[in-house]
Amino acid sequence: MNRITSLFNIKYPIIQAGMIWCSGWKLASAVSNAGGLGLIGAGSMHPEVLEEHIVKCKKATDKPFGVNVPLLYPQTDELMEIIVRQGVKIVFTSAGNPKKYTPFLKEKGITVVHVVANKKFALKSVEAGVDAIVAEGFEAGGHDGFEETTTMVLIPMIREAVDIPLIAAGGIASGKAAFAAMALGADGVQIGSLFAASKESSGHVSFKNKIVESDDGDTFLSLKKLVPVRLLRNAFFEKVRNAELSGASREDLSELLGHGRAKKGMFEGDVEEGELEIGQVAAIIHDVKPAEQIVREIVADFNQTAERLSGQVW
């Protein structure tokens, strides 16, 4: 066992990211049943919907699972109350100050992990008392850091700065990538895009097909005047890019984005006018597979890589 498997009481140090519109109870329970840690993504859920997903997840698995809560949402207090009431033991927080909820959650006996994209927030997370950190590189899908620091740079930089368990995220879609992350100092990996395209993902089948069909250079970091987000190229993205190139203001971009754009694309399947959040690794995802198979293949690939490299000395 390593520090991550010990912390969460799981078989493999593989975390399924809590992605909006993709990470419902079916995906979280499937990953947990396969030996990883599944996360319900609360960012796209009203409080009553989150409670329903937690209840169903508890029925679908007797293994540990958690909830990811982006702290920028207005109903966060209600989400946290539900998490405590339902007895969830693991919470990943993101997109906000880790000091706001960590003491409250720790008092309830909950293991807390915070997602960061730079050293500054890694140190703030340690000060807040979190149990572990997810360091997410620039390659990742969804909301990224302003610094555009790649995973290969971010992981050793944060490993040098903190002693607590460290989970690498961004650009990881194979056992080889997981092995590289561990070599750089990570104790485990968080995987998003690969699970977004899984059979159990609650993302629309058209979104999954779009991921599978994507190629090199089809994702871009956009909307940096609002909150940086990596998007898959489509008609909506082209409107965003043209607006940014013409000097659009923050207000202009906010108006263009509107409301419900991510739901429209990722959940409802409008792959042209919707917002499609996915990582650079979409270019090497070629199939929609069950989550259990994904975990199994990552573990086998990791072990084969470790064996292949074990005798190499420079």
Give the termini separation: 28 Å
Q: Label the overall shape.
A: globular
User: Which spans have pLDDT < 50 for at least 5 consecutive residues?
Assistant: none
Number of structural domains: 2
Query: Helical segment tally?
Result: 14
CATH topology name of the largest domain: TIM Barrel
Average pLDDT level: 95
Fraction of residues in H or I helices:
40-55%
Output the radius of gyration.
18 Å
| CATH C-level name of the largest domain | Alpha Beta
Strand order across the largest sheet: 1-9-8-6-5-4-3-2
Summarize the biggest pleated sheet: 8 strands, parallel
Secondary-structure element order, N to C: HEHEHEHEHEHEEHEHEHHEEHHHH
What is the number of strand segments?
A: 11
CATH-level-2 architecture of the largest domain: Alpha-Beta Barrel
- In CATH, what is the homologous superfamily of the largest domain? Aldolase class I
Beta-strand content estimate:
5-15%
- Secondary-structure-derived class: alpha/beta
Outline the structure in words:
- The protein is 42% helix and 15% strand.
- It has 314 residues and is α/β, with parallel strands linked by helices.
- It has two domains: 3-202 and 285-305, Aldolase class I (TIM Barrel), CATH 3.20.20; 205-282, no CATH class.
- The relative contact order is 0.13.
